[in-house]
């Protein structure tokens, strides 16, 4: 089922401190077919941000499964916790 020659392109969107840390608000990456959001998070070393409330939206859906394979042209947004005041 998994074709090792296939790749998918995914758009990553960063907000708040992540955008500042990476110096980018948006990047497009090519990933092996079958790559999950969790693998993407590990590849970019973003796991530490989850402890402070980072949320992920996949194709506009917050709370989507991080261990499901990403589709071609998926959009993965990394959302910092909302601070009140």
Key descriptive features of the protein:
single chain; about 80 residues; alpha+beta; Ubiquitin-like (UB roll); five-stranded mixed beta sheet; 2 helices; about 30% strand; globular
Question: What features would you describe in this structure?
Answer:
This protein is of the alpha+beta class and 85 residues long. The chain is 16% helix and 32% strand. A five-stranded mixed sheet has the order 2-1-5-3-4.
Question: What is shown here, in short?
Answer:
The chain is about 15% helix and about 30% strand. With about 80 residues, the protein is α+β, with helices and mostly antiparallel strands.
Strand adjacency order, main sheet: 2-1-5-3-4
Structural class: alpha+beta
Remind me, CATH topology?
Ubiquitin-like (UB roll)
Largest sheet: 5 strands, mixed
Strand-helix topology:
Blueprint (H helix, E strand, L loop, with lengths): L6 E8 L1 H7 L3 E7 L4 H7 L11 E4 L2 E2 L11 E6 L6
Parallel strand pairs: 1-5
Antiparallel strand pairs: 1-2, 3-4, 3-5
């Amino acid at each position: 089922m998994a074709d090792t020659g296939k790749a998918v392109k995914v758009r990553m969107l960063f907000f708040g401190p992540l955008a500042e840390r990476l110096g980018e608000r948006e990047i497009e990456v090519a990933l092996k077919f079958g790559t999950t959001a969790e693998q993407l998070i590990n590849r970019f070393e973003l796991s530490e941000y989850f402890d402070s409330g980072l949320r992920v939206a996949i194709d506009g859906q917050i709370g989507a499964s991080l261990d499901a394979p990403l589709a071609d042209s998926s959009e993965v947004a990394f959302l910092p916790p909302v601070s009140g005041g």
